[in-house]
Design a protein that fits this description.
Layout: H1 28-43, H2 47-61, H3 81-93, H4 97-104, H5 106-115, H6 122-130, H7 136-141, H8 148-155, H9 157-160, E1 164-165, H10 166-183, E2 188-191, H11 193-196, E3 201-202, E4 205-210, H12 220-230, E5 234-241, E6 262-271, E7 286-295, H13 301-309, H14 312-326, E8 328-330, E9 335-337, E10 342-344, H15 349-355
Parallel strand pairs: 4-7
Antiparallel strand pairs: 1-3, 2-4, 5-6, 6-7, 8-9, 9-10
Helix pairs in contact: 1-2, 1-3, 1-4, 5-6, 10-12
The structure holds guanosine-5'-triphosphate (GTP) and manganese (II) ion (2 copies).
Residues 193-194, 199, 202-204, 206, 244, 292, 307-308, 310-312, 315, 332 line the site of guanosine-5'-triphosphate (GTP).
């Protein structure tokens, strides 16, 4: 055949951080199914299995067209036997029996409902399910002992499971800007997470805060929290040092900066009148919204920006690429070169991609 008639061969790189993954893609009917199986694997704490399904789904998200036959997939990376059989069944029959029976199973639905409570992880939810509990209401009815986060999670369950719109995220941004600027006028506030990647809705709103003068950001988090609390804007907050387990294969965190990096999990009380001027007086006039705040020293800002923009799979793949292909260790604080035995500095995300020998992928194409 003439060259123009040959179906173009898609050369797909195997790490998600080597690919462009837009938010809107052509294979949702397949990726949603694979992600049900990934979620179910997470519920049974089978991380390997979960990541395998997520990687398969991610490859399909990066395809420039809708998959029609299983043959189109034969040269693509990351598609394991199990994923391929699920894809094949959906292409042929419209649905996958395994996916549908998972979706309908009482176990899956109960785990979904209980892990959907803010402050409840897989381990706790699993214990409750084994005790016969199925929903947040069951927690109340049986008088389960709940920590403060979980109490807030149950109390605001409905609001916190109502997707946050971009419009609401913008209103929260204005509030956070106002709080931070009142305390430290030169501070820099960045919207991170899904909204930075262009999502129209999210489960929360994520912010990263820094200051161009190294050290000026110290002790800022408690001040922000106090300011917000004084204004009656917080329904819940828990501030912690960042205790997130970073990559296990190297010292990816400069020890001296350890306790400067703080995060705050919070629930904002958002006045609805600010976004809905037609709200009736008798209607509920506010709603609860999850907000994550992170404060980073300026020297780590690029790493923190990259680390908190996501997606989760994109982040995981970046760290895997760094470790397996480059002998480096990447975290939201730093990049460590294990061969040269030194930290690599960066003042922008672009520089980090360059250090890693990767083509720069903008946030809107990190929806792996
Ligand atoms: P939705 O909020 O569900 O819309 O999507 P999202 O992509 O914004 O997810 P989320 O808010 O859960 O996380 C945003 C980013 O922060 C992701 O890249 C996560 O990998 C990252 N992240 C979440 N928790 C932690 C943490 O404890 N430490 C670090 N370093 N990163 C985290
Ligand atoms: Mn988020
Ligand atoms: Mn978040």
């Amino acid at each position: 055949p003439k060259p123009s008639e040959v179906t173009p061969v898609i050369r797909m790189k195997s790490y998600a951080c080597q690919r462009r993954t837009p938010l809107k893609h052509h294979n949702s009917f397949l990726t949603e199914a694979l992600e049900i199986l990934a979620e179910n694997a997470e519920f049974s704490e089978n991380e390997g299995r979960s990541v395998a399904f997520r990687r398969s789904a991610s490859v399909l998200k990066a395809l420039p067209h809708a998959v029609r036959t299983i043959d189109e997939l034969k040269d693509l990376p990351c598609l394991g036997e199990h994923s391929l059989s699920v894809i094949k069944e959906i292409l042929e029959d419209g649905t996958s029996r395994e996916v549908e029976s998972t979706r309908q199973s009482e176990q899956f639905q109960a785990m979904k409902a209980l892990t959907g409570v803010f402050g409840v992880g897989v381990k706790t939810a699993d214990r409750w399910v084994r005790e016969g509990l199925r929903s947040p209401l069951d927690l109340v009815d049986t008088g389960q002992k709940l920590n403060h986060a979980q109490q807030a999670g149950v109390q605001y369950y409905k609001d916190l499971n109502t997707p946050v719109t971009r419009k609401e995220a913008m209103v929260i941004s204005v509030i956070v800007e106002k709080a931070v600027k009142a305390l430290l006028p030169e501070a820099i506030i960045t919207l991170t997470g899904g909204f930075r990647r262009g999502k129209e809705v999210g489960h929360d709103v994520d912010f990263l805060i820094t200051h161009p003068e190294e050290g000026a950001e110290e002790k800022l988090m408690p001040k922000i929290v106090n300011w917000l609390e004084d204004q009656g804007l917080l329904l819940y907050q828990k501030t912690t040092r960042n205790s997130y387990l970073e990559s296990k294969d190297g010292p990816a965190r400069p020890p001296s900066n350890m306790d400067r990096f703080e995060r705050c999990f919070s629930i904002f009380k958002l006045e609805q009148s600010k976004i809905d001027s037609n709200a009736h007086a008798e209607a509920s006039s506010w709603r609860a919204i999850r907000v994550d705040l992170v404060v980073s020293p300026y020297s780590q800002f690029a790493f923190a920006t990259l680390g908190w923009t996501g997606s989760k799979l994109f982040e995981r793949e970046l760290r895997r690429w760094a470790g397996q292909e480059k002998g480096m260790s990447l975290s939201s604080h730093a990049l460590y070169d294990s061969k040269k035995k030194c930290y690599l500095q960066a003042s922008s995300e672009e520089e980090i991609f360059t250090h890693l020998g990767l083509e720069y992928i903008p946030p809107s194409e990190r929806n792996a």
